[in-house]
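Extended Data, panel c. Modelled sequence:
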Amino acid sequence: MLRHTLVNHFLEYSAFRYPKKIAIIEEERTVTYCELENMANKVAYTLIDQGVVKGDRVVVFMENKIESVVAIFASLKAGAVFVVINYSTKLNKVEFILNNSGAKAIIIQNEKVGILNNCSCPFLEVVIVCGNPVDSYTHIRYEEIISFNHKKRLLPKCIDLDLACIIYTSGSTGSPKGVMLSHRNIISAAHSITTYLENNHDDIIINMLPLAFDYGLYQVFMAFKVGGTIVLEKSFAFPNKIIERLIKEKVTGFPGVPSIFALLLKMSNLNSKDFRFIRYITNTAAALPINHICKLRKLFPSTKIYSMYGLTECKRVSYLPPEEIDRNPSSVGKGMPNQEVFIVNENDEKVGYGEVGELVVRGTNVMLGYWNLPEETAKRLRPGRYYGEYVLYTGDLFKMDKEGYLYFVARKDDIIKSKGEKISPKEVENVLYSLDGIIEAAVIGVPDEICGQVVKAYIVLDNDSKLTERETLKFCSQNLENYMIPRYLEIVDSLPKTATGKINKLTLN
Protein backbone atom coordinates (compact mmCIF):
# COMPACT_ATOMS: atom_id res chain seq x y z
CA MET A 1 0.00 0.00 0.00
CA LEU A 2 1.52 3.34 -1.06
CA ARG A 3 1.60 5.88 1.76
CA HIS A 4 1.44 9.59 1.02
CA THR A 5 4.05 11.49 3.01
CA LEU A 6 4.47 14.43 0.60
CA VAL A 7 1.77 16.34 -1.28
CA ASN A 8 3.42 15.60 -4.64
CA HIS A 9 2.86 11.89 -3.92
CA PHE A 10 -0.84 12.51 -4.66
CA LEU A 11 0.10 12.95 -8.33
CA GLU A 12 3.04 10.55 -8.44
CA TYR A 13 1.22 7.58 -6.94
CA SER A 14 -1.93 8.11 -9.03
CA ALA A 15 0.27 8.34 -12.15
CA PHE A 16 1.76 4.99 -11.15
CA ARG A 17 -1.62 3.33 -10.49
CA TYR A 18 -3.74 5.00 -13.21
CA PRO A 19 -1.30 6.28 -15.89
CA LYS A 20 -3.84 6.47 -18.74
CA LYS A 21 -6.73 7.80 -16.72
CA ILE A 22 -7.98 11.36 -17.28
CA ALA A 23 -6.74 13.49 -14.39
CA ILE A 24 -8.05 16.92 -15.48
CA ILE A 25 -10.80 18.12 -17.80
CA GLU A 26 -10.56 21.80 -18.74
CA GLU A 27 -13.18 22.84 -21.29
CA GLU A 28 -12.27 20.75 -24.36
CA ARG A 29 -8.80 19.82 -23.07
CA THR A 30 -7.92 16.72 -21.10
CA VAL A 31 -4.71 15.35 -19.62
CA THR A 32 -3.91 11.93 -18.19
CA TYR A 33 -2.08 11.28 -14.94
CA CYS A 34 0.97 10.07 -16.85
CA GLU A 35 1.04 13.19 -19.05
CA LEU A 36 0.58 15.47 -16.03
CA GLU A 37 3.37 13.76 -14.12
CA ASN A 38 5.77 14.14 -17.08
CA MET A 39 4.96 17.83 -17.49
CA ALA A 40 5.36 18.52 -13.77
CA ASN A 41 8.76 16.79 -13.79
CA LYS A 42 9.98 18.90 -16.73
CA VAL A 43 8.95 22.16 -15.07
CA ALA A 44 10.54 20.99 -11.78
CA TYR A 45 13.85 20.25 -13.56
CA THR A 46 13.75 23.71 -15.13
CA LEU A 47 13.15 25.41 -11.79
CA ILE A 48 16.16 23.60 -10.35
CA ASP A 49 18.28 24.48 -13.40
CA GLN A 50 17.38 28.13 -12.83
CA GLY A 51 18.65 28.02 -9.26
CA VAL A 52 15.48 27.29 -7.29
CA VAL A 53 16.44 25.33 -4.18
CA LYS A 54 14.56 23.61 -1.38
CA GLY A 55 12.39 26.09 0.53
CA ASP A 56 12.34 28.80 -2.16
CA ARG A 57 8.93 30.28 -2.91
CA VAL A 58 7.39 29.87 -6.36
CA VAL A 59 4.35 31.99 -7.21
CA VAL A 60 1.66 30.61 -9.53
CA PHE A 61 -0.38 33.39 -11.17
CA MET A 62 -2.84 31.83 -13.62
CA GLU A 63 -6.48 30.98 -14.12
CA ASN A 64 -7.89 27.58 -13.18
CA LYS A 65 -6.22 25.54 -15.91
CA ILE A 66 -4.06 22.49 -16.48
CA GLU A 67 -0.88 24.56 -16.44
CA SER A 68 -1.72 25.89 -12.97
CA VAL A 69 -1.88 22.38 -11.57
CA VAL A 70 1.37 21.47 -13.34
CA ALA A 71 3.04 24.53 -11.79
CA ILE A 72 1.87 23.62 -8.28
CA PHE A 73 3.16 20.06 -8.43
CA ALA A 74 6.36 21.10 -10.22
CA SER A 75 7.11 23.50 -7.38
CA LEU A 76 6.60 20.75 -4.82
CA LYS A 77 8.76 18.31 -6.78
CA ALA A 78 11.55 20.92 -6.84
CA GLY A 79 11.34 21.12 -3.06
CA ALA A 80 9.94 24.64 -3.28
CA VAL A 81 6.97 26.28 -1.57
CA PHE A 82 4.12 27.22 -3.90
CA VAL A 83 2.06 30.40 -3.54
CA VAL A 84 -1.06 30.72 -5.72
CA ILE A 85 -2.30 34.23 -6.53
CA ASN A 86 -5.91 34.66 -7.61
CA TYR A 87 -6.08 35.56 -11.30
CA SER A 88 -8.21 38.66 -10.58
CA THR A 89 -5.68 40.11 -8.10
CA LYS A 90 -4.59 43.68 -8.86
CA LEU A 91 -1.08 45.16 -9.05
CA ASN A 92 -0.65 46.37 -5.44
CA LYS A 93 -1.59 43.04 -3.90
CA VAL A 94 0.47 41.05 -6.42
CA GLU A 95 3.50 43.17 -5.57
CA PHE A 96 2.85 42.74 -1.84
CA ILE A 97 2.65 38.94 -2.09
CA LEU A 98 5.75 38.67 -4.30
CA ASN A 99 7.79 40.75 -1.86
CA ASN A 100 6.29 39.47 1.37
CA SER A 101 6.88 35.85 0.36
CA GLY A 102 10.32 36.65 -1.06
CA ALA A 103 9.36 34.72 -4.20
CA LYS A 104 12.33 33.58 -6.26
CA ALA A 105 10.27 32.37 -9.22
CA ILE A 106 6.90 32.97 -10.80
CA ILE A 107 4.93 30.86 -13.29
CA ILE A 108 2.54 33.29 -14.90
CA GLN A 109 -0.09 33.48 -17.63
CA ASN A 110 1.02 35.61 -20.58
CA GLU A 111 -1.81 38.13 -20.17
CA LYS A 112 -0.52 39.02 -16.70
CA VAL A 113 3.18 39.47 -17.53
CA GLY A 114 2.79 43.24 -17.93
CA ILE A 115 2.09 43.54 -14.20
CA LEU A 116 5.68 42.52 -13.49
CA ASN A 117 7.03 45.60 -15.32
CA ASN A 118 5.22 47.76 -12.77
CA CYS A 119 6.33 45.76 -9.73
CA SER A 120 9.47 46.23 -7.70
CA CYS A 121 10.40 42.63 -6.85
CA PRO A 122 14.06 42.41 -5.77
CA PHE A 123 13.86 38.69 -4.90
CA LEU A 124 12.32 37.56 -8.20
CA GLU A 125 14.86 35.88 -10.49
CA VAL A 126 12.94 33.34 -12.59
CA VAL A 127 9.90 34.07 -14.78
CA ILE A 128 8.16 31.24 -16.66
CA VAL A 129 5.42 32.44 -19.00
CA CYS A 130 2.55 30.25 -20.13
CA GLY A 131 1.23 31.20 -23.58
CA ASN A 132 2.58 33.46 -26.29
CA PRO A 133 4.44 36.35 -24.61
CA VAL A 134 2.87 39.79 -24.94
CA ASP A 135 5.61 41.66 -23.12
CA SER A 136 9.35 42.10 -23.30
CA TYR A 137 9.99 41.00 -19.72
CA THR A 138 12.83 38.44 -19.54
CA HIS A 139 11.18 35.06 -19.34
CA ILE A 140 11.25 31.32 -20.06
CA ARG A 141 8.44 29.90 -22.16
CA TYR A 142 6.39 27.15 -20.50
CA GLU A 143 5.58 25.58 -23.87
CA GLU A 144 9.27 25.16 -24.66
CA ILE A 145 9.91 23.50 -21.32
CA ILE A 146 7.32 20.76 -21.84
CA SER A 147 8.26 20.20 -25.50
CA PHE A 148 11.82 19.09 -24.65
CA ASN A 149 13.01 15.82 -23.16
CA HIS A 150 14.81 16.95 -20.05
CA LYS A 151 17.53 14.84 -18.52
CA LYS A 152 16.20 13.14 -15.40
CA ARG A 153 17.91 14.08 -12.17
CA LEU A 154 17.50 13.58 -8.47
CA LEU A 155 14.91 15.91 -7.01
CA PRO A 156 15.31 17.39 -3.51
CA LYS A 157 14.38 15.12 -0.64
CA CYS A 158 11.68 16.70 1.48
CA ILE A 159 10.01 15.36 4.61
CA ASP A 160 6.44 15.90 5.73
CA LEU A 161 7.43 18.64 8.19
CA ASP A 162 8.74 20.83 5.36
CA LEU A 163 6.76 23.86 4.24
CA ALA A 164 4.64 23.05 1.17
CA CYS A 165 2.64 26.20 0.50
CA ILE A 166 1.69 29.66 1.68
CA ILE A 167 -1.95 30.67 1.22
CA TYR A 168 -2.62 34.39 1.55
CA THR A 169 -5.89 35.27 3.26
CA SER A 170 -7.57 38.65 3.05
CA GLY A 171 -8.20 39.17 6.74
CA SER A 172 -10.58 41.74 8.19
CA THR A 173 -8.01 44.55 8.36
CA GLY A 174 -4.56 45.36 7.05
CA SER A 175 -2.45 43.42 4.58
CA PRO A 176 -3.02 39.76 3.66
CA LYS A 177 -1.55 37.15 5.98
CA GLY A 178 0.35 34.17 4.60
CA VAL A 179 -0.87 30.91 6.14
CA MET A 180 2.02 28.42 6.20
CA LEU A 181 1.05 24.78 5.59
CA SER A 182 3.44 21.84 5.70
CA HIS A 183 3.15 18.68 3.63
CA ARG A 184 1.92 16.99 6.80
CA ASN A 185 -0.78 19.63 7.37
CA ILE A 186 -2.17 19.19 3.84
CA ILE A 187 -1.99 15.41 3.81
CA SER A 188 -3.69 15.18 7.21
CA ALA A 189 -6.57 17.43 6.11
CA ALA A 190 -6.96 15.72 2.72
CA HIS A 191 -7.01 12.28 4.32
CA SER A 192 -9.70 13.25 6.84
CA ILE A 193 -11.89 14.95 4.22
CA THR A 194 -11.67 12.16 1.66
CA THR A 195 -12.48 9.69 4.46
CA TYR A 196 -15.81 11.24 5.43
CA LEU A 197 -16.72 12.11 1.83
CA GLU A 198 -15.86 8.52 0.85
CA ASN A 199 -13.93 9.69 -2.19
CA ASN A 200 -12.65 7.03 -4.58
CA HIS A 201 -11.03 6.73 -8.02
CA ASP A 202 -14.44 6.80 -9.74
CA ASP A 203 -15.17 10.32 -8.48
CA ILE A 204 -15.40 13.21 -10.95
CA ILE A 205 -15.19 16.45 -8.97
CA ILE A 206 -16.03 19.83 -10.48
CA ASN A 207 -14.15 22.90 -9.24
CA MET A 208 -15.13 26.45 -10.15
CA LEU A 209 -13.44 27.96 -7.09
CA PRO A 210 -10.06 29.71 -7.43
CA LEU A 211 -7.01 27.55 -6.73
CA ALA A 212 -5.79 30.45 -4.57
CA PHE A 213 -8.72 29.60 -2.26
CA ASP A 214 -7.90 26.56 -0.10
CA TYR A 215 -11.34 25.06 -0.75
CA GLY A 216 -10.66 25.12 -4.51
CA LEU A 217 -7.06 23.95 -4.13
CA TYR A 218 -8.03 20.94 -2.05
CA GLN A 219 -10.48 19.71 -4.67
CA VAL A 220 -7.42 18.96 -6.83
CA PHE A 221 -5.52 17.38 -3.94
CA MET A 222 -8.48 15.21 -2.95
CA ALA A 223 -9.12 14.03 -6.52
CA PHE A 224 -5.45 13.19 -7.07
CA LYS A 225 -5.12 11.46 -3.72
CA VAL A 226 -7.71 8.86 -4.73
CA GLY A 227 -7.00 8.81 -8.48
CA GLY A 228 -10.20 10.62 -9.43
CA THR A 229 -10.84 13.27 -12.09
CA ILE A 230 -11.06 17.01 -11.56
CA VAL A 231 -13.15 19.22 -13.87
CA LEU A 232 -11.65 22.72 -13.83
CA GLU A 233 -13.89 25.72 -14.42
CA LYS A 234 -12.79 29.35 -14.18
CA SER A 235 -15.77 30.55 -12.15
CA PHE A 236 -19.53 30.27 -11.59
CA ALA A 237 -20.16 33.44 -13.63
CA PHE A 238 -22.20 31.47 -16.20
CA PRO A 239 -24.40 29.06 -14.20
CA ASN A 240 -26.01 27.48 -17.29
CA LYS A 241 -22.57 26.50 -18.57
CA ILE A 242 -21.75 24.86 -15.25
CA ILE A 243 -25.01 22.91 -15.28
CA GLU A 244 -24.20 21.69 -18.80
CA ARG A 245 -20.75 20.63 -17.62
CA LEU A 246 -22.20 18.79 -14.62
CA ILE A 247 -24.44 16.77 -16.90
CA LYS A 248 -21.91 16.19 -19.70
CA GLU A 249 -19.15 14.91 -17.40
CA LYS A 250 -21.50 13.08 -15.01
CA VAL A 251 -19.94 14.88 -12.07
CA THR A 252 -20.14 13.02 -8.74
CA GLY A 253 -18.77 15.73 -6.42
CA PHE A 254 -20.09 19.30 -6.42
CA PRO A 255 -18.35 21.68 -3.96
CA GLY A 256 -19.79 25.15 -3.57
CA VAL A 257 -20.24 28.17 -1.33
CA PRO A 258 -23.51 29.89 -0.32
CA SER A 259 -23.31 32.48 -3.14
CA ILE A 260 -23.02 29.71 -5.74
CA PHE A 261 -26.02 27.85 -4.35
CA ALA A 262 -27.99 31.10 -4.12
CA LEU A 263 -27.44 31.65 -7.86
CA LEU A 264 -28.28 28.03 -8.57
CA LEU A 265 -31.59 28.26 -6.72
CA LYS A 266 -32.56 31.35 -8.72
CA MET A 267 -32.45 29.31 -11.96
CA SER A 268 -35.90 28.36 -13.18
CA ASN A 269 -35.14 25.41 -15.47
CA LEU A 270 -33.47 22.96 -13.09
CA ASN A 271 -36.45 20.90 -11.94
CA SER A 272 -36.53 19.11 -15.28
CA LYS A 273 -32.87 18.04 -15.02
CA ASP A 274 -31.71 14.62 -13.82
CA PHE A 275 -28.90 15.00 -11.28
CA ARG A 276 -28.86 11.46 -9.92
CA PHE A 277 -25.19 11.06 -10.88
CA ILE A 278 -24.14 13.71 -8.31
CA ARG A 279 -23.15 11.68 -5.26
CA TYR A 280 -22.46 14.57 -2.91
CA ILE A 281 -22.63 18.35 -2.53
CA THR A 282 -20.39 20.19 -0.06
CA ASN A 283 -20.68 23.70 1.31
CA THR A 284 -18.26 25.79 3.33
CA ALA A 285 -17.00 29.42 3.63
CA ALA A 286 -20.27 30.29 5.42
CA ALA A 287 -23.15 28.19 6.70
CA LEU A 288 -25.98 27.46 4.29
CA PRO A 289 -29.29 29.05 5.29
CA ILE A 290 -31.83 26.42 6.34
CA ASN A 291 -34.19 27.59 3.59
CA HIS A 292 -31.50 26.91 0.98
CA ILE A 293 -30.82 23.46 2.41
CA CYS A 294 -34.50 22.56 2.03
CA LYS A 295 -34.54 23.74 -1.58
CA LEU A 296 -31.34 21.88 -2.42
CA ARG A 297 -32.77 18.69 -0.91
CA LYS A 298 -35.74 18.96 -3.29
CA LEU A 299 -33.55 19.75 -6.30
CA PHE A 300 -31.04 16.96 -5.56
CA PRO A 301 -33.16 14.31 -3.78
CA SER A 302 -30.64 11.46 -4.17
CA THR A 303 -27.55 13.55 -3.38
CA LYS A 304 -25.78 13.66 -0.01
CA ILE A 305 -25.43 17.25 1.21
CA TYR A 306 -22.52 18.01 3.52
CA SER A 307 -22.71 21.24 5.50
CA MET A 308 -19.16 22.04 6.67
CA TYR A 309 -17.08 24.63 8.47
CA GLY A 310 -13.42 25.43 8.11
CA LEU A 311 -10.80 28.13 7.86
CA THR A 312 -7.56 28.38 5.92
CA GLU A 313 -5.48 28.06 9.10
CA CYS A 314 -6.47 24.39 9.41
CA LYS A 315 -8.38 23.77 6.18
CA ARG A 316 -11.41 21.99 7.65
CA VAL A 317 -12.87 21.77 11.13
CA SER A 318 -16.21 20.01 10.99
CA TYR A 319 -18.84 18.37 8.82
CA LEU A 320 -22.46 17.44 9.34
CA PRO A 321 -23.22 13.84 8.27
CA PRO A 322 -25.85 14.03 5.49
CA GLU A 323 -28.26 11.83 7.45
CA GLU A 324 -28.34 14.51 10.16
CA ILE A 325 -29.10 17.49 7.92
CA ASP A 326 -32.87 17.28 8.41
CA ARG A 327 -32.57 16.94 12.19
CA ASN A 328 -29.82 19.54 12.69
CA PRO A 329 -29.92 21.84 9.65
CA SER A 330 -28.44 24.81 11.53
CA SER A 331 -25.40 22.83 12.72
CA VAL A 332 -22.04 22.54 10.93
CA GLY A 333 -21.55 19.12 12.48
CA LYS A 334 -18.81 17.62 14.60
CA GLY A 335 -15.04 17.73 14.33
CA MET A 336 -13.75 15.75 11.34
CA PRO A 337 -11.68 12.55 11.75
CA ASN A 338 -8.29 12.84 13.51
CA GLN A 339 -9.14 16.17 15.10
CA GLU A 340 -10.31 17.48 18.46
CA VAL A 341 -12.44 20.60 18.91
CA PHE A 342 -13.56 22.38 22.06
CA ILE A 343 -14.95 25.77 23.09
CA VAL A 344 -13.44 28.14 25.66
CA ASN A 345 -14.48 31.39 27.34
CA GLU A 346 -12.42 34.56 27.73
CA ASN A 347 -10.58 32.98 30.68
CA ASP A 348 -9.54 30.03 28.51
CA GLU A 349 -11.85 27.67 30.39
CA LYS A 350 -13.98 25.08 28.58
CA VAL A 351 -17.61 26.16 28.49
CA GLY A 352 -20.68 24.05 29.14
CA TYR A 353 -23.16 22.75 26.59
CA GLY A 354 -25.11 25.55 24.93
CA GLU A 355 -22.71 28.25 26.12
CA VAL A 356 -21.02 30.56 23.61
CA GLY A 357 -17.23 30.72 23.40
CA GLU A 358 -14.29 30.64 21.00
CA LEU A 359 -13.74 27.45 19.03
CA VAL A 360 -10.32 25.82 19.44
CA VAL A 361 -8.93 23.19 17.05
CA ARG A 362 -6.33 20.54 17.84
CA GLY A 363 -4.83 18.34 15.11
CA THR A 364 -2.05 17.76 12.60
CA ASN A 365 -3.95 19.86 10.06
CA VAL A 366 -3.32 23.06 12.07
CA MET A 367 -1.03 25.52 10.26
CA LEU A 368 2.62 26.17 11.11
CA GLY A 369 1.83 29.87 11.55
CA TYR A 370 1.66 33.11 9.57
CA TRP A 371 4.60 33.89 7.31
CA ASN A 372 6.90 36.47 8.96
CA LEU A 373 4.20 37.46 11.48
CA PRO A 374 5.27 36.06 14.88
CA GLU A 375 2.92 38.28 16.90
CA GLU A 376 -0.12 37.39 14.79
CA THR A 377 0.89 33.72 14.97
CA ALA A 378 1.11 33.87 18.78
CA LYS A 379 -2.47 35.17 18.94
CA ARG A 380 -3.80 32.20 17.00
CA LEU A 381 -1.43 29.36 17.96
CA ARG A 382 -1.16 28.80 21.70
CA PRO A 383 0.38 26.00 23.79
CA GLY A 384 -1.75 22.87 23.87
CA ARG A 385 -2.13 19.90 26.15
CA TYR A 386 1.33 18.45 25.60
CA TYR A 387 4.78 19.99 25.64
CA GLY A 388 5.67 21.48 22.24
CA GLU A 389 2.09 21.22 20.95
CA TYR A 390 0.12 24.21 19.67
CA VAL A 391 -3.63 24.49 19.12
CA LEU A 392 -5.53 26.91 16.91
CA TYR A 393 -7.78 29.59 18.37
CA THR A 394 -10.12 30.23 15.44
CA GLY A 395 -11.48 33.65 16.38
CA ASP A 396 -14.99 32.27 15.75
CA LEU A 397 -17.73 32.03 18.36
CA PHE A 398 -19.61 28.73 18.61
CA LYS A 399 -21.77 26.73 20.93
CA MET A 400 -22.00 22.94 21.24
CA ASP A 401 -24.97 20.75 22.18
CA LYS A 402 -24.86 17.63 24.37
CA GLU A 403 -24.34 15.40 21.33
CA GLY A 404 -21.24 17.34 20.30
CA TYR A 405 -22.78 19.18 17.35
CA LEU A 406 -21.35 22.63 16.65
CA TYR A 407 -23.36 25.78 15.92
CA PHE A 408 -21.70 28.87 14.48
CA VAL A 409 -22.63 32.10 16.28
CA ALA A 410 -20.40 34.81 14.78
CA ARG A 411 -16.89 35.98 14.12
CA LYS A 412 -15.62 37.61 17.31
CA ASP A 413 -15.07 40.81 15.32
CA ASP A 414 -18.59 40.70 13.83
CA ILE A 415 -20.57 40.77 17.06
CA ILE A 416 -22.86 43.81 17.17
CA LYS A 417 -23.05 45.55 20.56
CA SER A 418 -26.23 47.56 21.04
CA LYS A 419 -27.33 49.07 24.40
CA GLY A 420 -25.12 46.53 26.18
CA GLU A 421 -26.66 43.59 24.30
CA LYS A 422 -24.55 41.34 22.06
CA ILE A 423 -26.16 40.51 18.72
CA SER A 424 -25.04 37.73 16.40
CA PRO A 425 -25.49 38.80 12.76
CA LYS A 426 -25.97 35.13 11.89
CA GLU A 427 -29.05 34.89 14.11
CA VAL A 428 -30.70 37.84 12.36
CA GLU A 429 -29.68 36.50 8.94
CA ASN A 430 -31.24 33.11 9.74
CA VAL A 431 -34.59 34.80 10.41
CA LEU A 432 -34.36 36.78 7.17
CA TYR A 433 -33.53 33.64 5.17
CA SER A 434 -36.60 31.89 6.60
CA LEU A 435 -38.82 34.45 4.86
CA ASP A 436 -39.89 33.28 1.39
CA GLY A 437 -38.51 35.46 -1.35
CA ILE A 438 -35.15 36.32 0.22
CA ILE A 439 -32.26 34.65 -1.59
CA GLU A 440 -29.34 36.40 0.15
CA ALA A 441 -28.96 38.43 3.33
CA ALA A 442 -26.17 40.26 5.14
CA VAL A 443 -26.37 41.92 8.54
CA ILE A 444 -23.88 44.41 9.97
CA GLY A 445 -23.64 46.86 12.85
CA VAL A 446 -23.60 50.59 12.11
CA PRO A 447 -22.70 53.38 14.56
CA ASP A 448 -25.44 55.02 16.58
CA GLU A 449 -25.02 57.90 19.09
CA ILE A 450 -27.45 56.46 21.63
CA CYS A 451 -27.14 52.67 21.21
CA GLY A 452 -23.49 52.45 20.23
CA GLN A 453 -24.45 50.24 17.29
CA VAL A 454 -27.70 49.26 15.61
CA VAL A 455 -28.53 46.51 13.14
CA LYS A 456 -28.57 47.16 9.41
CA ALA A 457 -29.68 44.46 6.97
CA TYR A 458 -29.23 44.05 3.24
CA ILE A 459 -31.35 41.55 1.31
CA VAL A 460 -31.48 40.24 -2.25
CA LEU A 461 -34.84 39.01 -3.46
CA ASP A 462 -35.72 36.09 -5.68
CA ASN A 463 -36.62 37.04 -9.24
CA ASP A 464 -40.36 36.52 -8.65
CA SER A 465 -40.56 38.05 -5.17
CA LYS A 466 -42.73 41.11 -4.47
CA LEU A 467 -41.57 41.36 -0.87
CA THR A 468 -41.39 44.89 0.52
CA GLU A 469 -39.19 46.51 3.16
CA ARG A 470 -42.19 46.99 5.43
CA GLU A 471 -43.23 43.33 5.19
CA THR A 472 -39.70 42.20 5.92
CA LEU A 473 -39.35 44.37 9.02
CA LYS A 474 -42.75 43.22 10.27
CA PHE A 475 -41.61 39.61 9.92
CA CYS A 476 -38.43 40.44 11.86
CA SER A 477 -40.46 42.06 14.66
CA GLN A 478 -42.50 38.87 14.97
CA ASN A 479 -39.45 36.61 15.14
CA LEU A 480 -36.68 38.60 16.85
CA GLU A 481 -36.16 40.35 20.18
CA ASN A 482 -36.65 44.10 19.93
CA TYR A 483 -32.93 44.95 20.15
CA MET A 484 -32.18 42.56 17.25
CA ILE A 485 -34.69 44.00 14.78
CA PRO A 486 -32.90 45.85 11.96
CA ARG A 487 -33.06 49.61 12.37
CA TYR A 488 -32.23 49.95 8.67
CA LEU A 489 -32.98 47.62 5.78
CA GLU A 490 -32.04 47.87 2.12
CA ILE A 491 -33.27 45.74 -0.77
CA VAL A 492 -30.43 45.48 -3.26
CA ASP A 493 -29.89 43.71 -6.59
CA SER A 494 -26.77 41.92 -5.38
CA LEU A 495 -24.30 41.77 -2.51
CA PRO A 496 -20.57 42.36 -2.92
CA LYS A 497 -18.50 39.16 -2.94
CA THR A 498 -14.89 38.30 -2.31
CA ALA A 499 -12.94 36.29 -4.87
CA THR A 500 -13.85 33.15 -2.91
CA GLY A 501 -17.59 33.82 -3.11
CA LYS A 502 -18.11 35.05 0.45
CA ILE A 503 -20.31 38.09 1.07
CA ASN A 504 -17.88 40.97 1.63
CA LYS A 505 -19.35 42.81 4.60
CA LEU A 506 -16.40 45.18 4.80
CA THR A 507 -17.73 47.04 1.74
CA LEU A 508 -21.21 47.45 3.27
CA ASN A 509 -22.05 50.46 5.41
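The CA atoms of residues 373 and 489 lie 39 Å apart. This feature is highlighted in the accompanying rendering.
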